[in-house]
Task: inverse folding
């Protein structure tokens, strides 16, 4: 077992500090249900201090008065410092979140990549010159929002920090991160890299606190100019209300109920491999998980047999031992996920495999494949956020698309076929922010990611996402004729 530090502080104004009232939260190891470490538990006073530190950084123009090349070096430097701590970061993240060590390494590498990718754009944000004829000079300047608040979910805490904080800094914003209360430590290790990279005090601040307390205090804070939220629809709605009260721009990356359409000519080996990552990686706690499969009847039984057998073969264990099926994050998440499976079976679904808690310490749910489900059933409509795949059948391509599009969500979707015409026809009709063809999660840091409908709005990742982090200021100048 990796030993990890027993106590982790907040980072405010360039210093590691206790909570103002000294409170701490005990973090639980999801693989053992035993306590792992403590973290300073932020309340209103800590949120005030973090926002003040970020405001002071903005007021001092510490991130925008320098040459943009300096900002580039700072942001890319965070990536380099994180790379230097890669082992520590991955091991801490794996123990804290429960995810497999190899997946924690992938997540940390992703975070490093965000700092590299967006850092390298810090000196390429340019305005425009707008011709207005003689007597005028008119130009635009990309200006940062100011203080950007980042409310982070527990399923990919390190990746979400990289994804939002890197472009925010590149564009010249100061940041306050509200780490998830269940597994904040991946965020802490990134902020250790921020400190080592030598950013100005207050440029990045980190607190961990309960959502309804510290999270709500942050998003409603008068000193916050911009909110980036990744999490559930319900929390997103409450943050949107807070943002509306103060007319603050937001980016909303919310949940999903993403479906793969499987045609009879699909490469089933590729499909099974995609299922491994699509629904069983990180115990299915992925916003764009492949939680539904809509399969042509001629291959339905074979697909069900193969994905059920995959689920049965997965090596179950602690993330730090790099198991293939790792625990869900908490006892309440386990109860939530198993509740979905139990209600589905009570409503008439059959389990091709799984459906139960695994009898061992920690929070393990068996890899689950459900069949005989109606597309309108709860388990086919709502986000489960666990290792639960629902397989539906239809022989009509149009009906498959209607089922795929028939939820409130629109984060991701996929199609598996060897027929290019069919793939493109289907991709055009799937209502989702991204469509994966023949490989679930095809894409990268470079490719825009985000949802439609209740999956949210605004895009993260790719060059397009940088646009979330600045606004245009236009300067119009009347120039007199000197003759
Ligand atoms: P959550 O909404 O419960 O919590 C997310 C964050 O919001 C946490 O930091 C939490 O403390 C905070 N929070 C909770 N209540 C708050 C409030 N009233 N005001 C301000 N902040 C508050 O979500 P979760 O359970 O941590 O994460 C799972 C959800 O996140 C799933 O729905 C998943 O699909 C979604 N998610 C989406 C993406 C994406 O990119 N679209 C990525 C990861 C996770």
Result:
């Amino acid at each position: 077992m990796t030993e990890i530090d027993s106590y982790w502080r907040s980072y405010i104004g360039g210093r590691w500090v206790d909570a103002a009232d000294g409170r701490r939260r005990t973090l639980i190891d999801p693989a053992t249900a035993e306590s792992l470490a403590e973290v300073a538990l932020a309340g209103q006073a800590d949120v005030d201090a973090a926002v003040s530190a970020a405001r002071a950084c903005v007021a001092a123009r510490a991130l925008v008065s320098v040459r943009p090349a300096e900002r580039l070096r700072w942001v890319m430097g965070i990536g380099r410092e994180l790379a230097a701590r890669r082992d520590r970061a991955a091991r801490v993240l794996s123990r804290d979140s429960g995810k497999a060590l190899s997946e924690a390494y992938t997540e940390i590498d992703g975070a490093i990549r965000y700092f590299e990718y967006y850092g390298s754009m810090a000196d390429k944000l340019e305005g425009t010159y707008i011709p207005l004829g003689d007597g005028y000079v008119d130009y635009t300047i990309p200006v940062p929002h100011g203080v950007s608040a980042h409310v982070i979910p527990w399923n990919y805490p390190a990746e979400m920090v990289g994804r939002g904080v890197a472009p925010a800094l590149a564009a010249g914003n100061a940041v306050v991160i509200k780490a998830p209360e269940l597994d904040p430590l991946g965020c802490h290790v990134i902020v250790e890299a921020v400190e080592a990279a030598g950013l100005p005090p207050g440029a990045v601040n980190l607190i961990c606190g309960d959502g309804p307390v510290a999270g709500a205090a942050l998003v409603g804070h008068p000193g916050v100019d911009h909110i980036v939220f990744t999490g559930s629809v319900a929390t997103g709605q409450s943050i949107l209300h807070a943002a509306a009260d103060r007319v603050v721009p937001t980016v909303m990356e919310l949940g999903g109920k993403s479906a793969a359409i499987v045609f009879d000519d699909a490469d089933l080996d590729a499909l099974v491999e995609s299922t491994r990552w699509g629904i069983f990686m990180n115990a299915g706690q992925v916003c764009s998980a492949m939680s539904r499969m809509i399969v042509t009847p001629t291959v339905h039984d074979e697909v069900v047999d193969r994905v059920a057998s995959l689920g049965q073969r997965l090596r179950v264990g602690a993330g730090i031992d790099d198991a293939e099926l790792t625990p869900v994050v908490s006892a309440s998440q386990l109860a939530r996920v198993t509740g979905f499976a139990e209600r589905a079976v009570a409503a008439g679904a059959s389990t091709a495999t799984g459906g139960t808690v695994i009898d061992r310490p920690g929070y393990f749910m068996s890899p689950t494949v459900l069949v005989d489900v109606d597309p309108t059933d709860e388990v086919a409509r709502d986000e489960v956020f666990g290792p639960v795949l629902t397989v539906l059948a239809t022989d009509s391509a149009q009906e498959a698309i209607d089922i795929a599009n028939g939820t409130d969500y629109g984060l991701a979707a996929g199609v598996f076929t060897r027929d290019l015409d069919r793939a493109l026809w289907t991709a055009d009709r799937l209502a989702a922010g991204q469509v994966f063809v023949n490989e679930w999660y095809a894409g990268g840091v470079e490719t825009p990611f985000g949802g439609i409908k209740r999956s949210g709005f605004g895009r993260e990742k790719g060059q397009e996402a940088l646009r979330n982090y600045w606004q245009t200021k236009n300067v119009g100048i009347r120039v007199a004729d000197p003759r």
